[in-house]
Design goal:
The protein is mainly alpha-helical and 111 residues long. The protein is 50% helix and 9% strand. A two-stranded antiparallel sheet has the order 1-2. The longest helix is centred in the first third of the chain and has 13 residues.
């Protein structure tokens, strides 16, 4: 099992957590998320809901941004590259959505 984890692109080095979980748990990600919420006045930009569980959505998909990190910063591990890849932290690429609207966005991305 260990060798499968190491060969999978979503794991980075010795850390056992997927890189995406590490990134979404990082201080820069939490700061980006907070800045998106503040800019949007804690309001879902799709339906206008307030006072509900909100999520920050990357308009340019998170997976594509990580693919760019791999392509543009090949000398860095994925996590380390993501931490310095400025397009990932661009507040202009973020939008505040309620859980229901965010789920609809993810479903339409897969269709």
């Amino acid at each position: 099992l260990k060798h499968l984890r190491e060969s999978h692109g979503n794991y980075d080095g010795e850390n056992r957590r997927p890189v995406t979980v590490r990134i979404r748990s990082s201080i820069p990600y939490k700061k980006w998320r907070q800045e998106v919420f503040i800019r949007d006045d804690f309001t879902c930009r799709e339906c206008g809901a307030r006072g509900v569980f909100l999520e920050a959505h990357h308009e340019k998909p998170f997976s594509k941004l990580l693919a760019e990190v791999k392509a543009n910063l090949p000398l860095f591990g994925l996590y380390e590259g993501a931490m310095i890849y400025t397009p990932l932290w661009d507040v202009g690429n973020g939008v505040t959505l309620c859980k229901k609207c965010h789920y609809g966005t993810r479903r339409s991305d897969r269709l």
